[in-house]
Amino acid sequence: QVRLMESGGGLVQPxxxxxxxxxxxxxxxxxxxVSWYRQxxxxxxxxxxxxxxxxxxxxxxxxxxxVAGRFTVSRELPKNMxxxxxxxxAPEDTGVYFCYAERxxxxxxxxxxxxxxxx
Length: 119
Prior knowledge:
The chain is mainly beta. It is built from no helices and 11 strands. The strands form 2 sheets. Strands 2, 4, 5, 6, 9, 10 and 11 form a 7-stranded mixed β-sheet that branches. It has a 4-stranded antiparallel β-sheet with strand order 1-3-8-7, with no helix packed on it. The N and C termini lie far apart (40 Å).
């Protein structure tokens, strides 16, 4: 059974940093595109960062314009984990952050971790 679990959320002041982690069991992250989504209260879930599966052409990352230059998505293969380093956080970054993995016709969600940016 595939399970994704996020961790690392919490309360941080504006300008601060957090590092979110997504661990996977029953799944090999190297063969999946892994994305981070966030959902603020009253809004739809928003795609903010993606790291592609490993391929002969290398690894690609993509970011939403709202987080580009501040957030970095990375993958650690030996631990089968994906990370989201978030710097210079702002109140509008507040929300529940979800890990999402997909490969061909199969996709999986984590349960989410709350990030609150407030002074």
